Amino acid sequence: MHAARIPDDIAHVLVTPAAYATDALYDAYRWLRANNPLGVAEVEGFDPFWVATKHADILEISRNNARFPSAVRSTTLTTQAGDARTHSITGTPHLVRSIVQMDEPDHMKYRLLIQSWLAPANVRKREEEVRTLAREAVAQFVAKETKCDFVKDVALHYPLRVVMNILGVPPEDLPRMLRLTQELFGASDPDTERFKAALSPEQFSQLLIGVVQDFSEYFEKLTAERRANPRDDLATVLANAEIDGQPLPPLERTSYFTVISTAGHDTTSSSIAGAMWALASQPGLFDRIKADPSLILALVEEAIRWTTPVKTFMRSAAEDTELRGQQLKNNDWIMLCYASGNRDEEIFPEPDRFNIDRTPNRQLAFGNGAHVCLGQHLARMEIRILFEELLPRLKSVTLDGEPRYSESFFVNGLKTLPIRFELA
User: Fold this and answer.
1) What is the CATH number of the domain that holds 298?
2) pLDDT value for 95
3) Domain count of the fold of the chain
4) pTM for the full model?
5) What is the distance in angstroms between the CA of the first residue and the CA of the last residue of the chain?
6) What's the Cα-to-Cα distance from 243 to each of 107, 108, 110, 240, 258, rounded to whole Å?
7) Residue among 53, 95, 50 at smallest CA distance from 68
């Protein structure tokens, strides 16, 4: 038994998707931060892994990519059976090879392909384009008249349209992209049709591979089309990109398309839904922001902290090293618990309270260091614009039932948010 072993009941929470839909997760994080902030989870069916729950440790690991690389082991928590299955298919720990699964020198080479596209100055150039999509989303919301499920009617679809518009995916293919994203990120959620609790780990892995193959087939066709007919979109950039004078290999190209088309909207959807939940449930918040729209920026940042859509990423140790007084060995696996870091009492007073007055708001939801989220500026802008367009149309908003979260230890957020509202 490892000296820093986490109690079994706490460790079990960390690997149970259903726990991520309840307060059990935050109770476990709170206990870990206070009692074992860098401990080892030993759970049957999983390789042992370190669990980093403090803001400072997550930052240190994120900023030291050479010591804590991403390419060596799976970047998402997986069972031993799932890991073995992936190795048998790809010969690596990864089903895809995107910038998320790369270290240097490849990581920066691939990152630079689209980094300027998503830089603040270029994102701002697309503000009116995004605002048009926001207005269309608000019009659909207004058509509901008095009540809706804000997740299913607004939060899921608007970010999807924004990202697919920039990527260059035609509107008629949006339902397919949404379905594949939900199957990839919500793979352990019982409401996601393609995945059922009765599946064995081997069957589960095979179905995930099927999702990746669906993405691959779609984006190979899009690549061929953009090579023949270039446009002003990211699909054209990736279809024609070169690394070291050679076109992107098919796996890396498909992986790039996949990470943009999935991570680019599912996470933003969760933050949008979290902001609306706060407006509908926290006394005085709606009236305060309605009276002073400049507070929307703070609403956006706190919603991102509060929801932390990417709950965990995994890293590994490249060498024997010490962190928080613990001795990590070469190849040890480490879970970065962003949602815990974003509720660290040392950084965020009253961390469980939604509070738009946090200054500065040092939330970790976009990661940090070399792997910081490329789309963070676009995400902030599209959330801000949606609420700039939506709030003037609202007179009041309240909850109209119990919100429910998706069940996933990777990307998770609200999957239902029933609200009742009065239009202005």
Assistant:
1) 1.10.630.10
2) 83
3) 1
4) 0.93
5) 62
6) 11, 11, 7, 10, 18
7) 50
